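Side project, low priority. Logging it here so it doesn't get lost.
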Amino acid sequence: MPPQDQAIRLLEDENKRLKRAVDELSILNDLARAIGASLNTQEIIQTIVRRSLRATNAEQGVITLVEEQSNQSMKTLVRTMVSSKEQEHFHFSQALLGWMHLNKKPLVINDPKNDERFRGIPWDESIRSLIAVPMMAKSELRGVLTVYNKKDGKPFAEDDQRLLAIIAGQSGQVVENARLYEKEKTLVKMQEEVRLAARIQTELLPKSAPTIAGYEIVGRSIPAQEVGGDYFDFIPIDEHRIAFCLGDVTGKGLPASLLMANLQATLRGQTLTTGSPKTCLERSNQLLYQSTSPEKFATLFYAILDLQNHQIHYSNAGHDNPYLCSGHTATKRLKTGGIPLGMLPDFSFEQESVSLEDDSILVAYSDGVTEAMNVQEEMFGEERIAAVIDQHKLAPASEIIDHLVSAVKTFAAGHPQSDDITVVVMRRTKN
């Protein structure tokens, strides 16, 4: 070749190289502006894929984000295809993801079926070639950017790999930041919903103790989480009777609080239409069984205080047995009742009545009291409850709750509260 022609050829090659460099810089500049102006993960990913297809002249592209601590090791967030004809969407394989986890470097495959690195791996028939590049953030693989098939049918070149690697390197941290931002927004929204649920649950509990001549009835609930599954209530029936109860539904947190609200509505409705604890529990049991899943149930102590005859008529649906005592009588446990509500569709509960002497006190509590643990993982237990009641049985009802809660917290000595703590105390005062 004459020297003059050779010089022209070299000049043409240099011009092509410079033009490609200018095109690459334009693509990268446009990409930087586009993804830097958004915190929406989907928008950013769509932009990256479309710019990548333009840069490599590929038919189809996908970004696969790698999820940590997930049953699925990868999650495809977007798949964008640019082609003059309809094609099936290709699927990023676990084999490619595994290779990328191990190597964390760009991968070009121009003959998938005969590539020695992926022998035995089935490929979609229409995949002729691909480039996969890692998207890194803080030295960790956060995603993989893949493009498939050049439109002109040619294989992918080294320049295609280099440019796609630059795009992925420029985009990896941006995608991660956007994803973290959206997760934070979701978390904030969930926290707000939990706070709202906690406020609603608090409003469902009695705002104050009822004022009853000759009696004190006080309740208190301390949830282990923002919302809990313990429930207590005071329900006036007529001028001579008031119902009171303490329940504990399965689970903790928001699901338990929803079941607790269901239990409250059910009990209030049945209390005002039935005349006995036995009937109230039997009907409530049927309603809860019909409206909840099999693993959901609630324990409940339910009693009606007869102010004329100074008696309580009670039944117990699988709850911790309350204590009843006075300054003149030994402590007894109120055991009569049956199984937790919602376990079986039909169950015949038992009912009992007991008379109340002056200074009689009844203490009902949830298993958050008995099962409270210290750092040695010892439980507070029933004997300590009985000891607190015996020591303070002449104190006002509210003070008995104070003493019991204080004893539980002292026993736990900083060990995290694992369950809701709820106590109801009823006392007949001296005439």
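Brief comment: The two ends are 125 Å apart (CA to CA).
Revisit when time allows.
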